[in-house]
Amino acid sequence: MEGVKSRRAQYAEMTRAAVLDSARELFVQRGYDTTSVDDIAKSSQVSKGAIYHHFADKKELFAQLLTDVQQQAMRAVTAAAEATDSEWERALAAAQTYLRGHVENPEARSIVRQAASVLNHDRICEIDEEVALPFIRDTLGRLGGAGMLQPLHIPTTARMILSVLVDATLQIAESDDPATAYTEVDKVLVALVSGLLRSPESA
């Protein structure tokens, strides 16, 4: 019986992955509005019922894709942060890696660009906060523990930094020249984050 459950679970995971892969490809190529659930079912070779078994509707399917984009970015952020030698370098590498991931990934840019017209503001914030906010809070806590951070309320500061990162990501996603957009937002980001430090020498 356990073996049967295991096979069913594996099949369910494969089905869900196939649906997400097809939806991502279609949303990027055609756009969310011109892609139907029927299109996704046909592309992923599953029934519409199978799609609705995993996702309440097309909008929730898109929300999962946005979550996947952010989680992929955060995996790269974590790896970059772990390769640094100081808390300031860790914070800077994390922010820059997060933004560069959207420069280098056209699919991610497309999903981020479409998100504002597909999901409401609260849902987007919920995803961003769930995926990225814990890391930002931890990074600020580490800076504070190292005596580098000004006496600021960390939860408030973390939310404001997240808002800046989200806006910067959107600017990159909407730009015709993502690399140049990254260069510009990076300059602003470094200046803003540097202002949180106790003194320029600490950076």
Automatic annotation (TrEMBL):
GO MF annotation terms: DNA-binding transcription factor activity; transcription cis-regulatory region binding
Domain of life: Bacteria
Pfam family, one: TetR_C_41
Protein's UniProt name: TetR family transcriptional regulator
Domain HTH tetR-type residues, every copy: 13-73
Record feature DNA-binding region, as residue ranges: 36-55
GO BP field: negative regulation of DNA-templated transcription
InterPro entries noted in UniProt: DNA-bd_HTH_TetR-type_CS (IPR023772), Homeodomain-like_sf (IPR009057), HTH-type_TetR-like_transc_reg (IPR050109), HTH_TetR (IPR001647), Rv0078-like_C (IPR049484)
Alphabetical keyword list: DNA-binding, Transcription, Transcription regulation
Entry annotated with the keyword DNA-binding: yes
